[in-house]
Amino acid sequence: MAFFRNLGCSLMGALGKNWSGLSSTSYEMTCSKFLSQQLRTFIQMRTVLKVVDNSGAKKVMCIQALKGKKGARLGDTIVASVKEAMPNGKVKKGKVVYGVVVRAAMQRGRCDGSEVKFDDNAVVLVDKQGQPIGTRVFGPVPHELRKKKHVKILTLAEHIA
């Protein structure tokens, strides 16, 4: 937390020297608001994602987003490396896999004007043809995956948001 506080102080100091009159709580709110905005970005290289299927992997790290220059969003396919895995799973630690982003902390607008965003970044592992490796998908999955042609993931999901 001290690192983030110093980061916030240097950023606030760069904006102007007249912020010393801020109370501690408003300063904390400003820093937390700034940091939450910084953490809500595209899924890019070296982003660690949670795996929400029963393929055996627990966490993966993004190597490359297959679409877009900035990074991956909801429904995009990524190439990832398995960082944590269960001992008896189909996928082992260190294996390079494909995955579809099913939950992203970055908000995405919907056609009706509402926006959807999740608390974490999560992925479902798929093979090269786009078929899921696991047989179950845990947690909510947005219905935007239907437009991206990932209907099989939607059928395996327990809750569609």
TrEMBL record:
Protein name, UniProt field: 50S ribosomal protein L14, chloroplastic
One Gene Ontology term from the biological process aspect of the record: translation
Organism of origin: Dipteronia dyeriana
Keywords for this protein: Ribonucleoprotein, Ribosomal protein, RNA-binding, rRNA-binding
GO cellular component, one term: mitochondrial large ribosomal subunit
GO molecular function ontology, one term from the record: structural constituent of ribosome
Stored InterPro entries: Ribosomal_uL14 (IPR000218), Ribosomal_uL14_bac-type (IPR005745), Ribosomal_uL14_CS (IPR019972), Ribosomal_uL14_sf (IPR036853)
Record Gene3D superfamilies: Ribosomal protein L14
Ribonucleoprotein found in the keyword field: yes
Entry similarity comment: Belongs to the universal ribosomal protein uL14 family.
